[in-house]
Amino acid sequence: MNKRHGAPGRDERRKTEGARPAEANESARGVMDVMLDFGVPIANGILTTDDEAQANARLEKGAEAVRVALEMAKLKGRIHEG
């Protein structure tokens, strides 16, 4: 617990919310809502980091999400052509 503000720290949030922080959960929910509303798949590549070092360490995960999104777009194009 963050004693200065009375808010739970990151470790406390993870204990109650699982492995993903609340921010990622809400973003994922928004992505899911768009998928359901429009009936199209969307690649979810939301990364949460505490600092620039973590962000740099996870660059490959971001690149992987981009590759998945591009592959999904190509596949959708082939399905509609066929």
Protein described:
This protein has 82 residues and is an all-alpha fold. It has one domain (10-81). Helix content is 66%, strand content 0%. The protein has helices at 10-17, 22-38, 52-57, 59-81. The longest helix has 23 residues, at 59-81. It is flat.
Q: H/E element string?
A: HHHH
Q: Give the overall shape.
A: flat
The class by helix and strand makeup works out as: mainly alpha
> What distance lies between the first and last C-alpha atoms, to the nearest angstrom?
56 Å
Counted by DSSP, the helix tally is: 4
Number of domains: 1
In terms of topology, how is this protein built?
Layout lengths: L9 H8 L4 H17 L13 H6 L1 H23 L1
State the main characteristics:
66% helix, 82 residues, mainly alpha
What is this structure, in a nutshell?
This protein is mainly alpha-helical and 82 residues long. It contains 4 helices and no strands.
